[in-house]
Amino acid sequence: MTTDFIIGHYNYWVIIVLMMLGLYVVMSRGNLIKKIVGLNIFQTSVFLLYITIGKVTGGTAPIIWEGREDVVYSNPLPHVLILTAIVVGVATTAVGLAITVRVREAYGTIEEDEILAQDHEAEVTEGASA
Amino acid sequence: MSQHHLILRIISKILIPPILLYAFYVQFHGDFGPGGGFQAGVIFAVGIILYALVFGLEGAQKVAPPSVVQVFMAFGVLLYAGVGVATLLLGGNFLSYDVLHPDLAHHSGQHYGILAVELGVGITVASVMISLFYSFAGRNAEIDDEDW
Amino acid sequence: MDLGTSIDIVLLAFLLICAVAIVFIRDLFSVVMVAGAYSLLSAMFFVNLDAVDVAFTEAAVGAGISTVLMLGGLMLTSRREKKPKGRQPIFPLLVVLSTGAALVYATFDMPDFGDPNSPANSYVGIDYIEATEKQIDVPNIVTAVLASYRGYDTLGETVVVFTAGLGVMVLLGIGFAGGAPASRKEEDDA
What is this structure's pTM? Predict the structure, then answer.
């Protein structure tokens, strides 16, 4: 592995580790708010990956520089995709939070194992009365 | 609440008008520099949310009543889709802005079309963000004392 | 190594620190604040990689609105994450590590960072840059692609944002200040 290869792929590797951390939070933590934050980390790592792919060495922001022919622009397409994804991401985060608030009101807790225990209890009593 | 945080209130009063003005700058300058409907909408919403945080939800809802915000949520989407329908009626494809203006040499149709749809995006995003904040802030917290 | 790459490496290291902190902190208020810092850092990363529009959006949305909404959510739920009982389960760790290993293996075939001849930067992206000047005549190519070439997409995204707004209103109510509207009070009495 040469230094060029490592520098050329460093971004990808860090982004993958960020994605792993996000996924780990979502899977291993029982707190619903923590899960939403984990999803956000996961989501942001995808944004970072797209923008990394769109970068061109020596390029500049994709805003046309009038009167200059020799300017290199970075790829604008990933920027467009991610720009809309960010706004949609916050909208879906808000829906997730709203559901968490309703869960808290219904169960009195936002810890996954306690919610499951309550559900199980309710099922058992339902089965006993039927 | 109203008598506390004097510095906070004065600074917010000074800051909120430039924030709202900046939102309009970002909205209408989006063709030429970074910016556009998504960013402008969020910045506009931030202005209102800052007001609500400092002066209370009731004050903010006098400025932007929830019923009005809801109407604007739908209005933005309808404006966007309406531009598409307008281009259909003028004989073009859905959202092909060239038919909006006869001056093809300067791409005026494209300019008008982009301006209109970005405005639609901005209105929807701003009102949705304000509405999200209202929903969360308007709900009474039933949090246990020990949790804080 | 030029300055841009050095900044890139440092910012990614900071992002990594923030993400690790989020995994281990139990105080949810701190978690939300670190997540805000994480968003702001990623906005700086986007500026460094020429994605100014994206950076603008991330700074306004991720660090601004998202943090406010998270705090609003915390207010209505709880402030601390409970300590898990018993041992940490090993299964999530295994899944995450194997996913990560597979992805790292895949990166060996990826083009180098900033490669102007990579497939992603060779075809459609270049076409948009060249066509925007002739067909749209708007200096900001991102705006041109967003609102004109990909107008359908953006219409869809706007509808998604609108729908999410409706969804939260259905779940949490409209948010009238000074108590719930009359209809909800009656419902509670019944």
Answer: 0.89
